[in-house]
Each structure stands twice: as structure tokens, then as C-alpha cells.
Specification:
single chain; alpha/beta; eight-stranded mixed β-sheet; six-stranded mixed β-sheet; 15% strand
Length: 634
């Protein structure tokens, strides 16, 4: 009886959905990419809305940290496939008798399994991804095969949803990429001003030097005075006997215990190095000088109890105790990993060390101390997810999907003839007080494609770099694959004036070093290739796995290393258009009489709603600063 009752309700729900939306879901095939925070809410909404054919893809397995917001999962599901567990969970909900769900544990960029032919089998694609690289890939495939895509993302209290339809709306890459915030290395090493500087120093410099085997300076000697006092040289006097050199401060000596080495590291970093900085008197003429943290003067508490306190900032004494304990543990219990250990926010030893070192660094430079939780968020570049935002955005995804599907069905299945006038750019805002307290949810008309987008139109972009030092291999790995998110690129260098072309890289063989031609030119500087650089010389990049071609003009430029630590600057064709002040977007807002009125979105609203995430390649210390932008994470 109960099953019959549920079936009756399910049948009526499908009829109600069709009458409300004007959309016939029979035969509609939906691809959901991602089964995390947004994906769980999304697949639940799809099932309860009457969708019958759903395919889910996610490459992750369930972690304990997912359980506080990804409500389809339970503790017993840890280490299982997210997509497969989500399928099992939603099948317990009331659903259409014809419901079928295919769940895959896999990478959407695996073109052998999920290539263009796979995408062609769907009527619509719904993104619930947590990284830019995969978003770009899905965006390009949907454009190439002519399938509508609903893009989404959340960051804390902020979220956004929009439809991407080839030839009708901006694609994911129409807007120029957002440049990641970087900090000069001298600021990190010698005079930090913010907690993020200290966290970067602890993670990128001290951790890597101590545990990762990297040879790097913790103090930037380029800012030393000409008198050499910062070196702490020997005292004057011809008769002074030469003392034996001390052991390297950050290298464990044979027979030295982990505890003794940890104390020597502490003294070297927070006493001796600080004294070196104090000797650079020119640095402190207009800055407050640092203070040494002297270990002998500290009363150390229990480190294990302190490390469990994640939500409050540790004192200097507590930070010192945790740092000593973490160094001792790693060098005693994990000695085989020393020299190759990489930072992982989920590695308790690594996280304890970075949190303690960052706080001691903050204390040295009179910067407010942070909790382990806050430091983990910055060091791991974590944007803490909020379940309610995920739920709101998942609801918007389904609503926008209904609009697109209804329009396509009204156009007889021809996407090129479908109207998207009803679709909106939907934003969940975070201004809960003040003049914007009534603007929690915003809706704006979708913008037309950017005419100069290199993905939508194949317009020529510009790449500036030092062609004398940049090799073909660096170009492929750092720029084309990592920064521009190509999957298996084939690259030609062409002089469009003389029509001379040389093959630089063969995409299908890139795992073996780029094939015979790629191997031939791989380690050559760009200025030594058979096609000489100059007017009319472009890189022609093609990726058959993404059905994408583009042209990039190559320009020899010597860039400032601190401003461009990656060694290159990519200028998308769309950047030029973006430099002009954008016309304000229009927002739907209710009139006082209940009618719909049009008004211009305030500049602040447009900035929040229009912000786009970006990929980016870079080396050195890079810290995300996403407080004021909508970034597609989770």
C-alpha cells in the first residue's frame, strides 16, 4: 500500500512539474559533473523534480570532513565513491518508476571515457565542480558539441548560477582570468605585515627548507646594509682565534636527538635569524622592529592538548610547544620522509608545524595571532563551505535548467533557435545588513558572448615572456597545459606572412615528451627555433579532446620577476575590452505595486555578481585573496 501511495504521489509530482514548468522530462538526459556539496543537493533536486535519466561523475571518494554539509553521505560511506553513494542515497527518495541513474568514479577530463561523443548523448550538462581546470574543460566540450551548460559555484555565503549556451551567452572563459594575489618575497622573508605573510613564510619557506629538501634563504640578504653587519661576522682583532664553524642550524647532526634538533631549529629561526634582521637597521627606520622569541624564557605547556584546540589562537608559549613537538615527531617517527615531505593540510604533523611557526612569526612582527582553524583555511587555500548556500544554488541550477529545456523543446529541439530570454544570472549575495540587506538573491540578464574571447571565437591573444630563456617544454607545461587548461595540445609555430610552420608539440604523445618533434624541440629556447620570432609569428594551439583551436601571438618581453613570478604574461583578447568600464548589468527587482521593474545594478553588486574565477600558473609564494569575489570552488 505504501509503495502504491508513493508511486501515485510520484506520478502526480511529474504531472505537476510539467504543468508548472512547461517542460516534458520524458527522455531528457542530464549529466551532473560533481557530487560534492552542490552535487548532493543537485541530484536530490533532480530526482524529486521528476528527472528520469541522470548520469553523475565525480573523481573523489568521501572524507570525514565532507559529512558536515554533504547530507547524502554517512560515516559508514567514508572512502567510498561520492557519485555511487549519492546514487544509492537518492534512490531511497520518492522517484519516478522509470528513474535510472548512472554513477561513475572518474575524472571528467578522461577523454577516452568522457570525450565529445559521450557529451553528445545528453540534453543538458549541470556543473557542480570545485576547480577551474575542470570547469574550463567542460565549458569547451559543451561549446564544441552544442549542448547547454548550467554553470555554478559557491564560496561561503556567496554563490552564482548561469546558463551557458553557444552563440547566445558568455561562456565560462569570456571574461579575462582573475590574477592571483602574490606578495614580494622580500616582504615574506624580512618584514611581513599580515598573518597571510607569516603563514606563507611558514608553509612555503620554512617547511620546505626543513622537511622538503629545498635550499632557500629565510632572510633576504639583498636588503642588508653595505657594511655587512647583518652577517654577524667575526669580531675585529688580528689575534682572535678562528672558532670552529657551528653545525648547519637546519640540518640534523648524526646522533642528535629529535628533541635537541627541534630546540636548535627554534633558536636558529626565532632568535638568530631575527637578530640578523635587527642588524639591517635601514629596514626599521619607518617600521616597528621585530622581537626575538627566546625559548629559554618560555614556560612550555602540554603540546598535545594545545594542538587539539583548533578554534582559538594559541599563545606564544603554546605555539612554541607545538612547534617543538611537531619537529621532533617528524624527525623521529617519519625520518624516511624528511627531504621529500610535501605540505598537506590534512597531515596533522605538517599542519601543527605550519600553524605554530606562523603564530611565532606573527608574534615576532607584532601581528595578531590566528587559530589553527584560520591558518589551515589560508595555508590549504580553503573556502569553508556553507550547506545552506549549496542548497540555494542547487535550487537555482534546476530552475535555470527547466528554462533552457523548455525553450529548446519549444524550438523543436533546435538549440540555435531556442530563446534564452527567461534565463538569468542568479546570485546569492552575502550583504545581510546595511543598504543591501534586502538583496540576498539577485537576478541579472545574461550577457552576450564576448566577441574577442579566444575560446568562443578563436581570437588571437598575446603571450609575453623571455624567449631567450623560456623553452618549448616550459611553454607547453607551464602556459598551455597548466595556465590555459589544454588537455592534449598540438602546437605549431607559424609565420603567417611567409607561411612557414614548425611543429613544436604533438598532443597525442605528450605523455611521452611530446612525440618525436616535441622531443626534438622540447628543451630549446623559443628564440632558437627554425621559425624566427617577429611580426606575424603566432602559436597555433589545437586540442582535439576539447575541439578547441586558438592563436597566440608570441612576444619577447623581460618581465619583472616579483610582479610576474611565473615568468610570463598572458593577455587574452578579451582583456582589452575588459579594460573599459563595463555597462552596468540590469537586475530584476519587484516594484512597489507588485510589478516587475528594471533598474541598474549598483557598481558593488555588479562587481560581486560578475566576478569570475580563473586558472593561473605561478611559482613562488602565492596566496589566494578571495574575500570580495565569487570564485567557483564548492
Amino acid at each position: 500500500f505504501l509503495r502504491a501511495k508513493m508511486a501515485s504521489h510520484t506520478s502526480r509530482r511529474s504531472q505537476d512539474v510539467e504543468s508548472l514548468t512547461g517542460c516534458d522530462l520524458k527522455g531528457v538526459r542530464v549529466l551532473v559533473v560533481g557530487a560534492g556539496g552542490i552535487g548532493c543537493e543537485l541530484v536530490k533536486n533532480l530526482v524529486l523534480s521528476g528527472f528520469e535519466h541522470i548520469t553523475m561523475i565525480d573523481l573523489d571518494t568521501i572524507d570525514y570532513s565532507n559529512l558536515n554539509r554533504q547530507f547524502l553521505f554517512r560515516a559508514a560511506d567514508v572512502n567510498e565513491s561520492k557519485a555511487k553513494v549519492a546514487k544509492k542515497a537518492v534512490l531511497a527518495f520518492p522517484h519516478a518508476a522509470s528513474l535510472s541513474i548512472d554513477a561513475h568514479l572518474g575524472n571528467i577530463k578522461d577523454t577516452e571515457q568522457f570525450g565529445p561523443d559521450f557529451f553528445k548523448t545528453f540534453n543538458i550538462v549541470l556543473n557542480a565542480l570545485d576547480n577551474v581546470d575542470a570547469r574550463r574543460h567542460v565549458n569547451r566540450l559543451c561549446l564544441s558539441v552544442g549542448i547547454p551548460l548550467i554553470e555554478s559555484g559557491t564560496e561561503g555565503y556567496v554563490g552564482q548560477v548561469r546558463a551557458i549556451v553557444k552563440g547566445k551567452t558568455k561562456c565560462f572563459e569570456c571574461d579575462p582570468p582573475r590574477v592571483q594575489k602574490t606578495f614580494p618575497i622580500c616582504t615574506i622573508r624580512n618584514h611581513p605585515e599580515k598573518p597571510v605573510h607569516c603563514i606563507s613564510w611558514a608553509k612555503e619557506l620554512l617547511f620546505k627548507k626543513l622537511f622538503g629538501g629545498e635550499e632557500t634563504d629565510l632572510v633576504d640578504t639583498a636588503e642588508e646594509g653595505a657594511d655587512g653587519e647583518a652577517d654577524g661576522g667575526p669580531p675585529d682583532g688580528d689575534g682572535a682565534a678562528a672558532a670552529p664553524p657551528p653545525p648547519p642550524p637546519l640540518k640534523q647532526q648524526e646522533g642528535e636527538s629529535g628533541a635537541d634538533f627541534a630546540r636548535r631549529v627554534f633558536s636558529a629561526v626565532f632568535e638568530d635569524d631575527v637578530q640578523r634582521l635587527l642588524n639591517m637597521e635601514v629596514l626599521w627606520e619607518k617600521r616597528r622592529p621585530p622581537v626575538k622569541v627566546e625559548l629559554a624564557k618560555l614556560a612550555l605547556p602540554d603540546a598535545a592538548a594545545t594542538a587539539r584546540e583548533e578554534q582559538r589562537a594559541w599563545s606564544v608559549e603554546e605555539s612554541a610547544a607545538v612547534l617543538l613537538a611537531s619537529v621532533e615527531r617528524i624527525f623521529t617517527q617519519r625520518a624516511s620522509e624528511v627531504g621529500s615531505l610535501a605540505f598537506d593540510k590534512d597531515d596533522d604533523d605538517a599542519m601543527d608545524f605550519v600553524a605554530a611557526a606562523a603564530n611565532l612569526r606573527c608574534a615576532t612582527f607584532h601581528i595578531p595571532l590566528q587559530s589553527r582553524w584560520e591558518i589551515k583555511g589560508i595555508a590549504g587555500r580553503i573556502i569553508h563551505a556553507i550547506a545552506t548556500t549549496n542548497a540555494v544554488i542547487a535550487g537555482f541550477i534546476v530552475l535555470e535548467a527547466f528554462k533552457v529545456l523548455r525553450s529548446v523543446q519549444a524550438a523543436g529541439g533546435d538549440l540555435s533557435k531556442a530563446s534564452i530570454d527567461a534565463c538569468r544570472y542568479c546570485v546569492c549575495n552575502r550583504h545581510l545588513s546595511g543598504p543591501k540587506e534586502n538583496q540576498l538573491l539577485l537576478r541579472m540578464r545574461l550577457e552576450a558572448p564576448e566577441p574577442k574571447c579566444y575560446v568562443c571565437t578563436g581570437s588571437t591573444s598575446t603571450l609575453e615572456l623571455d624567449t631567450a630563456s623560456f623553452t618549448v617544454r616550459s611553454l607547453v607545461e607551464q602556459v598551455v597545459i597548466k595556465f590555459l587548461s589544454f588537455n592534449k595540445p598540438t602546437i605549431d609555430l607559424t609565420n603567417e606572412l611567409t607561411h612557414k610552420t614548425v611543429l613544436l608539440w604533438e598532443g597525442e604523445d605528450e605523455d611521452e615528451g611530446g612525440g618525436e618533434e616535441g622531443e626534438l624541440h622540447g628543451d630549446k629556447p623559443l628564440d632558437s627555433l627554425p621559425v624566427k620570432l617577429g611580426p606575424g609569428v603566432v602559436l597555433e594551439v589545437e586540442d582535439t579532446t576539447q575541439a578547441l583551436k586558438c592563436k597566440i601571438a608570441l612576444t619577447h618581453t623581460l618581465l619583472d620577476k616579483e610582479e610576474h613570478p611565473s615568468g610570463f604574461r598572458f593577455i587574452a583578447a578579451a582583456d582589452e575590452a575588459a579594460a573599459a568600464p563595463p555597462a552596468p548589468a540590469e537586475e530584476d527587482s519587484p516594484g512597489g505595486d507588485g510589478s516587475r521593474k528594471r533598474r541598474k545594478v549598483a557598481e558593488g553588486d555588479a562587481a560581486v555578481a560578475g566576478a569570475e574565477p580563473s586558472g593561473g600558473a605561478g611559482s613562488g609564494v602565492v596566496v589566494a585573496d578571495d574575500d570580495d569575489d565569487v570564485i567557483m570552488l564548492e
